[in-house]
Structure to design on (347 residues):
């Protein structure tokens, strides 16, 4: 069991690392491939790769897990948003650094949460609000090209716009997430990729050289396809909360790769934004791992006096919180006052 858990942790970290490769690698490839075509090939790579896994596992999948007509509106919304978002991201990457884009991509968490609040009326804890404020503040700092003159970076704003699109997309996907994950990823990869390709041709973009085309498809499979595959493998053992906590390292790994391999310059403003984003992300992870639930207790008390037996039941509930990894935990009982009704039976 312990080795299974260790393997799952490795899968979760690999999912984060594989996704983090996307920003610096895409930044390099954009020198040779036009942005809309780049977005298309990345998603096609993921769709083709996961499609192979999907058909390999199809025989072992319950037919009830497949998408139905009732899922069509959310599926279409997911595909349309997944067509727009990567195009915005690639155009943004043309005008900002890979390190900047890696951190700004974390704004997706804010967008997803706010949309879930406004559209689906989900509750947001005080702790999560604090994390959202810090991530937003970091994103604002990163979006300024020159804070002293209040001049925004168009590249950063496009990355934020992509993150907002993915926030809407996440809320569409959550409505169909109980279905087969591989089918969902395959459909979004293939159809969003083909949609982006049509737009690329309309814009006058063309196919890159075969070597760059092949490498981009491979990058899409690794950064989007394999990343999701390993995420699912980890989630099956660790659960959603702990897996997402490990996955939260992805933006920061992207920053590290950008600095090491692309030799991107780090400014004071960037370090402030990085620290703010890190604290905000940690708070969000803690909120994700924190589990709050209710316990219902009943206690039956029996006592005898004067030849009669009295019994009465105290029922009460209380809410307490603990971390997702606390398999065994304690909770306190508070003293309560109740009114009793005695059941009397003669001996």
């Amino acid at each position: 069991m312990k080795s299974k858990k260790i393997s799952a942790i490795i899968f979760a970290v690999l999912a984060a690392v594989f996704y983090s490769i996307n920003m610096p690698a895409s930044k390099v490839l954009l020198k040779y491939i036009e942005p809309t075509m780049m977005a298309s090939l990345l998603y096609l790579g993921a769709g083709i790769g996961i499609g192979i896994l999907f058909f390999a596992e199809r025989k072992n999948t319950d037919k009830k897990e497949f998408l139905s007509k009732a899922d069509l509106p959310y599926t279409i919304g997911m595909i349309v948003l997944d067509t727009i978002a990567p195009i915005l991201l690639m155009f943004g990457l043309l005008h900002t650094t890979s390190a900047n884009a890696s951190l700004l991509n974390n704004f997706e968490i804010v967008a997803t949460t706010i949309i879930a609040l406004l559209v689906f009326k989900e509750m947001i804890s005080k702790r999560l609000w604090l994390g959202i404020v810090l991530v937003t503040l970091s994103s604002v700092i990163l979006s300024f090209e020159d804070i002293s003159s209040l001049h925004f970076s168009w590249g950063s704003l496009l990355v934020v716009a992509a993150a907002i699109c993915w926030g809407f997309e996440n809320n569409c996907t959550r409505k169909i997430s109980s279905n087969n994950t591989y089918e969902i990823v395959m459909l979004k990869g293939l159809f969003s990729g083909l949609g982006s390709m049509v737009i690329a041709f309309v814009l006058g973009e063309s196919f890159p050289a075969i070597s760059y085309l092949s490498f981009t498809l491979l990058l899409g499979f690794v950064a989007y396809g394999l990343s999701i595959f390993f995420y699912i493998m980890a989630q099956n053992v660790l659960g959603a909360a702990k897996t997402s906590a490990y996955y939260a390292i992805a933006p920061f790994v992207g920053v590290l790769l950008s600095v090491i391999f692309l030799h991107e310059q780090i400014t004071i403003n960037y370090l402030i934004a990085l620290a703010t984003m890190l604290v905000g992300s940690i708070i969000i992870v803690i909120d994700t791992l924190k589990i709050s639930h209710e316990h219902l207790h009943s206690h039956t008390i029996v006592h005898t006096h004067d030849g009669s037996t009295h019994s009465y039941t105290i029922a009460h509930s209380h809410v307490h919180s603990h971390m997702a990894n606390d398999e065994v935990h304690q909770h306190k009982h508070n003293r309560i006052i109740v009114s009793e009704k005695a059941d009397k039976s003669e001996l």
Q: What stands out?
A: The beta strands are 144-146, 151-152, 290-305, 308-323, 343-346.
